[in-house]
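Friendly challenge for the regulars: who can give me the structure tokens for this chain first? No prize, just bragging rights.
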Amino acid sequence: MKTRKLLLFTIAIFFFSFAMQAQRGARIGYIDMEYILESVPEYLEASTQLAGKVQRWKQDVDKKQKEIDLMSLNLSNERVLLTKELIDEREEEIKIKEDEMLQYQQDRFGPNGDLMIQRRQLVQPIQDQVFNIVQEIAEAKKYDFIFDKSADIVMLFAAKRNDISDLVLRSINRASKRKEATSKKEKKEITQRDGLDLEQDKAVTAKEEAIEAKKDEREKMMEARQKTRDSIRAIKKAEFDARREKLLEERQKRKDSILEARANNTAPPVGDGDGDGN
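First reply, four minutes later:
Bragging rights claimed.
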């Protein structure tokens, strides 16, 4: 009870301080952590891999449950044929299997199971990165408060102009591109982009995306043309091979005909065998 009162008192003090700051013209911003996480490619890829693991774990649980159900069904059908000792033994085996399954569920899906641990490992690096970026933005732009919209704090209204989620995402993307940059030119371009504000950066990004789209369209067009040329070339080659094969067959037929005629001309005349030719 005392703990609850202390918590309520702390919350009241916080909101009172917040209200006082607001009256003095405090600058307030917020982020949407869920939106940020869902916009980070590395997080999405890792989430997909984790979802695959969860699916396999669920399949393992289902398999274990089906095995237990089958053992229970067999025992039920055979109970009248078994002695008490055998029944007790079979029931003990089923109990062991059930305990193993429950332990497996706890190890995978419990509060300290693999799922919770791997989720924390997945989210923690990005959360730390977001926290550091929020600190930098708050100091650079003189924010007094920055909240997380997706957290438990109730926000009855939040003006979009106070949302700095895109600023945070921009910083995360910049950090990722810096790691991937291999040439001085790429690093210089990234540094130049750091000097732009959010709207300017969005405009440059849109321009880059339009250029990339045209490039993709041009590549697809060139690929289609190449496929057409390859198709025509393949048809011409097939026609050439067919004509060549036909010419070779006709040549072979003429050769066989000449050889056959020569063989007929050089064959000895058929006589009566007495040497006089009559």
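Residues 198-265 form the longest helix (68 residues). The two ends are 143 Å apart (CA to CA). Your move, everyone else.
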